[in-house]
Amino acid sequence: MAHDPSLFELVRHPIAMRTLEVKRVVALTPRMTRVTLGGADLAGFRSLAPEDHVKIFFPRPGERDPILPVIGPSGLPAPSDGPKPIARDYTPRRYDPDRGELDVDFFLHGHGVASTWAAQATPGQVVGVAGPRGSYVLTREVAWHLFVGDETAQPEIARRIEELPASVAVRVVLLVDGPEEEQPWPASGPIGARWVHRRAGEVLLDAVRALALPEGEGFAWLAGEASQVRAVYRHLLVDRGLPASHVHASGHWKRGVAAHDHHEPIAVDER
């Protein structure tokens, strides 16, 4: 969705294709795995905002090295004949330039290229990483932030909380399978977190409807399954009266749609 220029500045980055190795794999929960990538190509990597995403290129089944596109003057090239690169977009969870490490958290949903790869990832395996193309940097602070999403949004939400000033109030509503998928939130200022459990039949919209928002100017970040994000987006704009410029919504995935484009706009009037 469009970013309000009164709140955000777009910082462009040169596109580089990096070949990185897996350094570590850590299970954060039964269905969330952190893969730490490194290598000489990571030098010069930049990620200035939690909303950034990189394109990760995975090897084809049975192969060691991924097929990588050649970066041209206009960025990534259009697809050509022959085997196509296999890539998905992910949030840079943590970048440590001193250690030369990039953390990426993967939700293991049991199907799809990225989830399948992450479930078997071991040190020494190779992936390609391109991006971020740019970062939308928040240029002024607001009194509070509301974060709503599912497991696919948790890496971005956790990074946002880490990077906020301690004086900013934070409210979080996150949908996961059950208590075993709950992760501790980073230490920060006043945080009110509500876990929503999918197995118990709970949905994001009901939890957000029951939520009391802080006073003052705030910003809401919504990400996850497109239909649930759309329902919360409509509620915040229509029922709560938040201005559209202060609500950012992204459908990271869409039920029944393979390789959904998360750039697809969320429309408030869709049912």
Automatic annotation (TrEMBL):
One of its GO terms (molecular function) is oxidoreductase activity. PROSITE patterns: FAD_FR. It holds the Pfam family SIP. InterPro entries: FAD-bd_FR_type (IPR017927), FNR_nucleotide-bd (IPR039261), Riboflavin_synthase-like_b-brl (IPR017938), SIP_FAD-bd (IPR013113), SIP_fam (IPR039374), SIP_rossman_dom (IPR007037). Residues 12-139 form the FAD-binding FR-type domain. CDD domains: siderophore_interacting. Belongs to the SIP oxidoreductase family. This is Iron-chelator utilization protein. It comes from Sandaracinus amylolyticus.
